Amino acid sequence: MMRFSTGLALGAAMLLIALPPPGRADAHMLAFRSADGTAGSTIKTKRIRADLAREIESWSGTHACESHARARSALKPAFTRWLGAQTVAHPGRKLSAWGYHSGDIWTESRIVDGKRTCRAGFRKLIAYAEFG
Fold first, then answer.
1. Vertex 64: Cα angle to 59 and 70 (nearest 5)
2. Whether the model pTM is above 0.70
3. Sign of CA dihedral 112, 114, 115, 120
4. Using CA atoms, how far apart are residues 60 and 52, in angstroms rounded to an integer?
5. Burial of 25: CB neighbours in 10 Å, binned 0-12, 13-18, 19+
6. Separation between Cα atoms, residue 86 and residue 95, nearest integer Å
7. Which SS3 state, helix, strand or coil, does residue 48 take?
8. Where are the beta strands (DSSP E) in the chain?
9. Which of 98, 100, 119 shows the shortest CA–CA distance to 53?
């Protein structure tokens, strides 16, 4: 029976934690806010929020999957549809501010047949609209 010292076992555990697993998925932040149309106003605003992550297709490529530009181009159609639907659902109210923020854009890199590939998508994308 082999005996390991506590320091050696702790060192081995720290090494396992520090090494990234193959196909590791990293998270990145993405956010945007329109200019506030009600700044300094006393108009009561109504804020609507929704998680659009399931409405947005994931994207893939050979590199730059973590690019915020690629993430924005993937979310733009779904966000535009949602914002249009909210505007129609609130007739007579002025859209004063809108935007989105994400706590979770996942990316994963893999090597398939000797070639690097990547895939990315949203786990969460909170869209909001404020009406005055």
1. 50
2. no
3. positive
4. 19
5. middle
6. 9
7. strand
8. 25-33, 46-51, 59-61, 95-112, 115-131
9. 100
Report whether 60 contacts 117 (CB < 8 A). Answer: yes
* 120 and 29 Cβ atoms separated by less than 8 Å: no
Nearest Cα neighbor of 121 from 61, 81, 48 is 61
Phi-psi region of 9 (alpha: psi -120 to 50; beta: other; left: phi over 0): alpha
Give the amino acid at 131: F
Which residue positions in the chain have pLDDT lower than 70?
1-29, 36-43, 103
Nearest of 30, 39, 118, 116 to residue 75 by alpha carbon: 30
Residue partners of 67: CB distance under 8 A and separation at least 6: none
